[in-house]
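Work Package 4 report. The design task specified in the project plan requires that, given a folded chain encoded as structure tokens, an amino acid be chosen for each position. We show below one input record used in the internal validation round.
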């Protein structure tokens, strides 16, 4: 696209197709999802309100399907769902907290991965996962830098390959304090 004009007062940019060139390349997997985004998702899924007027027909169908799946899985009453031999843990928290919990579980030799909205704990029942979470709460937050040292791939940003392991650990330490009390009374 080529910018033809900009009207600051009306906040309008007029563009036209360009004559050629290559589209820009965007690397990476995107930005981390913040706590507020996932909490807003939860609020929308539990809401009985009508869908927003700006949604088209397909978006309204998809939202209705999401709400039905949410209700069917009873995610307002249950934060853990067993799927075969695995357990999915729905925290409705941001990526930083989800990744921190995955690192804490992995440090306990529990096979866990962050899978979008949930943490998937492989070959683990709900009861066993509850035991691991209770143990993490009793352990307290621990040392964030030591926890970061247990994470496999830390060099993910453009210039991370230039950093020492120690600096990567400092840069990747998560906010582990949230674990205290997070799972008290978990379903």
């Amino acid at each position: 696209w080529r910018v033809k004009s900009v009207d600051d007062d009306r906040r309008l940019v007029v563009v036209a197709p360009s004559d050629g060139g290559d589209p820009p390349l965007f690397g990476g997997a995107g930005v981390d999802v913040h706590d507020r985004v996932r909490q807003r998702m939860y609020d929308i899924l539990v809401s009985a309100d009508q869908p927003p007027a700006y949604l088209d027909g397909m978006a309204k169908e998809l939202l209705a399907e999401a709400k039905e799946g949410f209700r069917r899985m009873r995610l307002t009453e249950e934060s853990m769902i067993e799927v075969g031999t695995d357990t999915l843990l729905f925290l409705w928290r941001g990526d930083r907290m989800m990744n921190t919990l995955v690192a804490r579980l992995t440090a306990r030799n529990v096979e866990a991965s962050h899978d979008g909205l949930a943490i998937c704990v492989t070959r683990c029942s709900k009861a066993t996962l509850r035991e691991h979470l209770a143990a993490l709460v009793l352990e307290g937050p621990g040392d964030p830098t030591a926890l970061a040292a247990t994470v496999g791939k830390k060099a993910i940003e453009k210039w991370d390959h230039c950093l020492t392991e120690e600096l990567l650990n400092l840069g990747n330490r998560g906010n582990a304090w949230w674990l205290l009390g997070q799972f008290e009374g978990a379903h």
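Residues 174-187 have pLDDT under 50 and may be disordered. Validation will be extended to a larger panel in the next phase.
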